[in-house]
Protein: Mobile element transfer
Amino acid sequence: MARFRRFRSVVRVGPVQVGTANDSRGQERHTAACTAPRCGFSAEYDTRSAAELAARTHRCPIR
Ligand SMILES: [Zn+2]
Structure:
């Protein structure tokens, strides 16, 4: 998962990975990204819990 190499605390929730990274201003950013091919879901959140909630509730369109 090359695109997660700057992330720490990466956890997997179903097909979705949640990782924490610092942006260019040093702010913590929490990203949820689906690993399913052709899904393309990814979003950033201010809090870890929001990112994990999004990961848990993600309904992957690809089956
Ligand atoms: Zn998905």
